[in-house]
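U., I forgot to send this yesterday:
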Amino acid sequence: MQETINASIAAALLKPRSIALVGISDDAAKTNGRPLRFLRMAGYAGTIYNVNPTRAEVQGEKAYPSLSALPEVPEHAFILTNSKLAVDAVEECGQLGIPVATILAGGFSESGAEGIAREQKLREIARRTGVRVLGPSSLGVVNLREKLVLTANAAFAEPDLPVGGIFCASHSGSMLGALTSRGRSKGVGFSGLVSVGSETDLCIGEICESTLDDPSITGYMLFLESMSHADKLRQFALGAARRGKPVVAYKLGRSDVAAELAVSHTGALAGEDAVAETFFRDCGIARVETLEGFLEALPLLARLPLDTLNTEGRKPTVGVVTTTGGGAAMAVDQLGIRGVSVIPPTAETLARMAERGINVSHGGIVDLTLAGTKYEIMKAALEVMLTAPEFDMVVATVGSSARYNPDLAVKPVIDSANFSDKPLACFVVPEAPAALALLNEAGVPSFRTPEACGDVIAAAFARRRPTELVRIDGPAKGERMLNEADAYALISPLGVPHAAYKVLNVAEPVPALGFDYPVVVKVLHDDIAHKTDVGGVILPVHDAEELAEAMRRIVDNIATHRPELTVERVLVQTMSKGLGEVLVGFRRDPEVGPLIMLAAGGILTEIYCDRAIRLAPVSLEAAREMVSEVKALQALAGYRGRQEGDLEAIAQAVSDFSKLALQQDCMILEAEMNPLLVKPKGEGVIAVDALVRIA
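Result:
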């Protein structure tokens, strides 16, 4: 796998000195005529070659019949033809040594067998010739600093787009126009924008990674429709984190699709969107759910670096200062439903305010009322709040004065923004574009709606410091389940304890077990994952006579439920008790790679969907965080005087089990311990069932 696209390819993609417009139309109003008009309007200084086999001139400029007829080999070809001709054009690009070809047309893998074949042909050409392909279904590339507006997106007819530090990459080309137009009204400026389309070759992670050392790019916005090429996306995210460049993502598709097709509970619980959410958090990417938040997120992310986030598993705390109680309540509500705690100032903090002449009532927020419209009052309150140890960040909520006296209303917020290292954000309650513009110009994180305020703050705190890459293998070509005994043999070297067991042949007399009755008897067969569903589990069994009868019953039950299978062996296991049960699951997702999950165990696992997920492997510290996130485990933490369970042993088991991601002798696709019994504090945990699927 290429580590990243090389400098010459990156330059040809984003800073080409020469461009060929293949299939350019004479009609500048048509989709395939716009790129020439947009490049000229923007003042692009490079050479433009028009390629149209049916015309000697397009839009008043010279045209060539083919790429081969050009006087030089261009660095970038924008192919504006239909899908069939596009494949031929890419072949010609490869033969001529053109580094990058961008394809506008659709009609590839999304359009059936013929389109799939065309897309496969593109991949073959790229591998054989070295031409890098952007698309298909790419609306093009924009680099505002280079005056490169190489796009068919009609939104870029708008002149003088604001230039800034944001690089935006999107699966959807039309979204780029929406973001630039909405961004303009908010004072958001872009450095570059790329529409990647189907990512047949070049992908978002590769492209963004190639720009990381550009000092003019200060942050990234990603609009995603899928998690394809997640390994390269993660590699980019690691690079961005090392350089302190924040990344925000808006991903479509929050529904869990086809979770019921998974073999294990882990697959059903770690559904499509839960996997994406885990991936973003563990890569240090802030995933937002509102379009407003998407555009407003980066200033806060820049002021809340990843290395400042707490790793103690506690909820972030926010202090709110306001001149309007109702407006502040909206923000508090949106923060609360996203798990961010708005807490009141301590008595010590209130006393410090009183020393500065600010007397406020005890409550969840600091409501300055109309007095807060005075500069000195709001400024003093913010200074005290920003140095109060109980808050991770402070939000100032500004009322009607922001619309009618924008300079006065937000000046104390702007002047306080750098008073401490603690981030300060502002929610402006009325429609007050002038006030928001002042805040944005000063680099103060600011929000127009309470939903965006809550969305961005929660997404910023949900990020985790990224860990290094684990190799993501492609889909397995063959796979098989391990029976429970073989599963124990595989996981035992990890250090996770399991209950004592013995494998018995159903055709032989019952031997001495080596452990005490009562026991549980379970069918042992590679093709039976969920034993209870087919009558393959019998308990409690109190002696050898009952054990012989249990084996006969299991054989009969399997003959009824799965007549195609022959049962030869059972697993007899000592019965263990615990204070509670958990599920520890491992899954190798085909897109994002190895995952580890901790969930409420037993038959209630899927009903409550109470779980914590991380990219695997995880450290003991990360596993402790996972324990703190599973609500059911609060009952094992000495809740209301109950006996404490061994939560530290759970964390150790999660960390140990996650090392399946590093297994060298075989690829583990899916594995779980369900249930893992939790014993009293200091007595550990013990697995009493295990499932493993390997490639």
